[in-house]
C-alpha cells in the first residue's frame, strides 16, 4: 500500500523531474562522459510520505557517477594546487555483494575493488568498520546511561538505533518528537567515517578538509540523503563530511561501462587511516545482516547493568522473520527486552504500539529495509527492481563467514579516544561522534515518494 494518500500535484512533480534531469549543454566533454549517465530515480529511495523537497532531490541527483568523475577529470586537467584528494570508504555490507556477484572471497573482493578504484584515480580506499566501532561503542554507553535515567526522564527509554537513514528520515519527517526523542544520538558509521576522514585523517596528512573529496560506497540510496544533512557540514571549511555516496550497484555500472571485469583487476590492499599501514583481512561485527547494534548493546548492557556475561543471543521471531525479540532474565524476572524491527510494516506497527503506550522494549534496532542492510535497494536487485533472492542468499552466507571483531578490542579506537578525541567523556566526543534528531516540518513543495 502507498504510505501517503495525498493528492498528487502534477505540476510540481513535472517541474521537479525537469529540474533533476536537465543537463547543461555547455558542459565541457571529457573522457568520463560515457560513464556518467546512470541516473538515480527518486522511486529508488526508501524515504516516504513526500519527505523529499525539490531542492533535496536536485542535490541527491548530483550524488552520482558524474560528480565522481567530474573530480577525477578535474585532477587530470587543472593546476595541481586545485587537485582534490579522492578518498573512498567501503561499507562492510557492500563487500558481500561484490564477493557473491563475482564469485570471490570477501577479502579478494575488497582488494580488487580497491584496485579498480585506484585505477580510476582514487588516492585512498578505506574500510568503514572502524567507524562502526565508534558508533557501536557510543550507542552502548548511551543505552546504559538512558537505562539508569529511565525513572527520572520520560523519554529515556525505549532507545531506537540511529544507523539507518531511511528510518531516521521517516521519524523526523513523518513521526513526532514522541519518537525522535527516543533515537540514539550516536552518528551512523557513514557519518563517523566522514568525521574520521575530514577530521582525523586530514589533520594527519596536513590537509584542509575541503581538499578531500570523500565518497562512500553503500548498499542503499538513503545514504545519499543522510550525507546532505546540515549537521554533517562544516561551514568553517565549506566541506561536508561525505561529499558523494555511490551504491554498490552504481560501482558495478561503472565497471560495466568501462568494460572491466573484477576477475581481471589487480588486487591492492585497502588503506588504513593510520600512517602507512594497510588493512588486513575483512572483519565485521555481530549481527546477521547489519552492524549488529542489538547484539553488541544487549551483551554490553547485560554485563554493565546486571553482571551477566551473555555468550550467545537467542532470537525469538514474532509476527514475521523481520520482527524478532531478545530478552534477558535474572532471578525469574525479564530485565532486558530488545527487538529488531526491519521494514516499514514492522516499523509502523512498532510506532503504533509506542503511541498507545503498549511498548515493552528497552531497545529496538530499526532498519528500513526488510532483511536488513544486505538487502539495500542499491544492491542485490534484479533488473525489474525486485530483490535478487539467490544473490541475497549468497551474500548472507559470505557475510556470516566474515570473522567478528569486538569494537572494544580495536586498539586504534582506544588510542584515538585519548589522542584525538581528548578522552571518552570529552566535549569533542559529543561534537564529533553525536548529533541530534527532531521532528521536521514538511515542505509544501515536496514530491510524493512511493516505497
From TrEMBL:
Keyword hit for Cell inner membrane: no
Biased composition (Polar residues): 12-25
Gene3D superfamilies: 3.40.50.1780, Fe-only Hydrogenase (Larger Subunit), Chain L, domain 3 (3.40.950.10)
Feature: compositional bias, Basic and acidic residues: 1-11
Keyword Nucleus found: yes
Keywords from the named record: Nucleus, Phosphoprotein
InterPro entries, per database record: Cytosolic_Fe-S_CAF, Fe_hydrogenase, Fe_hydrogenase_lsu_C, Fe_hydrogenase_ssu
Transmembrane regions: none
One cellular component (GO) term of this entry: nucleus
Region (Disordered): 1-28
Lineage top rank: taxon: Eukaryota
Main location: nucleus
Chain ranges of the Iron hydrogenase small subunit domain: 385-441
A Pfam family it matches: Fe_hyd_SSU
Localization annotation: Nucleus
Sequence similarity: Belongs to the NARF family.
Subunit comment: Interacts with LMNA and binds to the farnesylated C-terminal domain.
Protein name: Nuclear prelamin A recognition factor
Gene name per UniProt: Narf
Amino acid at each position: 500500500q502507498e504510505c501517503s494518500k495525498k493528492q498528487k500535484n502534477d505540476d510540481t512533480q513535472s517541474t521537479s523531474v525537469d529540474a533533476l534531469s536537465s543537463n547543461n549543454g555547455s558542459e565541457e566533454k571529457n573522457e568520463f562522459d560515457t560513464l556518467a549517465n546512470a541516473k538515480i530515480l527518486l522511486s529508488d529511495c526508501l524515504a516516504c510520505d513526500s519527505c523529499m523537497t525539490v531542492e533535496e532531490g536536485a542535490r541527491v541527483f548530483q550524488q552520482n557517477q558524474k560528480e565522481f568523475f567530474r573530480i577525477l577529470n578535474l585532477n587530470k586537467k587543472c593546476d595541481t594546487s586545485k587537485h582534490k584528494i579522492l578518498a573512498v570508504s567501503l561499507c562492510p555490507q557492500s563487500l558481500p555483494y561484490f564477493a557473491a556477484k563475482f564469485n570471490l572471497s570477501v577479502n579478494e573482493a575488497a582488494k580488487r575493488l580497491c584496485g579498480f578504484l585506484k585505477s580510476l584515480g582514487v588516492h585512498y580506499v578505506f574500510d568503514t568498520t572502524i567507524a562502526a566501532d565508534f558508533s557501536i561503542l557510543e550507542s552502548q554507553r548511551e543505552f546504559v546511561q538512558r537505562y539508569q535515567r529511565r525513572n527520572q526522564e520520560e523519554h529515556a527509554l525505549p532507545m531506537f538505533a540511529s544507523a539507518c537513514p531511511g528510518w531516521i528520515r521517516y521519524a523526523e519527517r513523518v513521526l513526532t518528537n514522541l519518537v525522535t526523542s527516543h533515537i540514539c544520538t550516536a552518528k551512523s558509521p557513514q557519518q563517523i567515517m566522514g568525521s574520521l576522514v575530514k577530521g582525523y585523517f586530514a589533520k594527519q596528512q596536513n590537509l584542509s578538509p575541503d581538499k578531500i573529496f570523500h565518497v562512500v560506497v553503500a548498499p542503499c540510496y538513503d545514504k545519499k540523503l543522510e550525507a546532505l544533512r546540515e549537521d554533517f557540514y562544516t561551514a568553517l571549511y565549506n566541506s561536508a563530511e561525505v561529499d558523494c555516496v555511490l551504491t554498490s550497484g552504481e560501482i558495478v555500472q561503472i565497471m560495466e561501462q568501462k568494460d572491466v571485469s573484477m576477475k581481471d583487476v589487480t588486487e591492492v590492499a585497502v588503506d588504513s587511516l593510520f600512517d602507512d599501514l594497510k588493512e588486513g583481512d575483512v572483519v565485521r561485527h555481530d549481527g546477521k545482516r547489519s552492524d549488529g547494534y542489538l547484539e553488541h548493546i544487549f551483551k554490553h548492557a547485560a554485563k554493565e547493568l546486571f553482571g551477566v556475561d551473555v555468550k550467545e543471543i537467542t532470537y525469538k521471531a514474532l509476527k514475521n522473520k523481520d520482527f524478532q525479540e531478545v530478552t534477558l532474565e535474572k532471578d525469574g524476572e525479564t530485565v532486558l527486552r530488545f527487538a529488531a524491527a526491519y521494514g516499514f510494516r514492522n516499523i509502523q506497527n512498532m510506532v503504533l504500539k509506542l503511541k498507545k503506550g503498549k511498548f515493552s522494549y528497552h531497545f529496538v534496532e530499526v532498519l528500513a529495509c526488510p532483511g536488513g542492510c544486505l538487502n539495500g535497494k542499491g544492491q542485490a536487485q534484479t533488473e525489474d527492481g525486485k530483490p535478487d533472492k539467490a544473490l541475497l542468499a549468497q551474500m548472507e552466507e559470505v557475510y556470516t563467514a566474515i570473522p567478528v571483531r569486538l569494537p572494544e578490542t580495536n586498539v586504534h579506537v582506544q588510542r584515538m579516544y585519548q589522542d584525538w578525541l581528548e578522552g571518552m567523556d570529552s566535549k569533542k566526543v559529543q561534537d564529533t561522534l553525536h548529533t541530534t534528531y527532531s521532528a521536521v516540518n514538511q515542505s509544501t513543495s515536496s514530491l510524493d515518494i512511493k516505497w
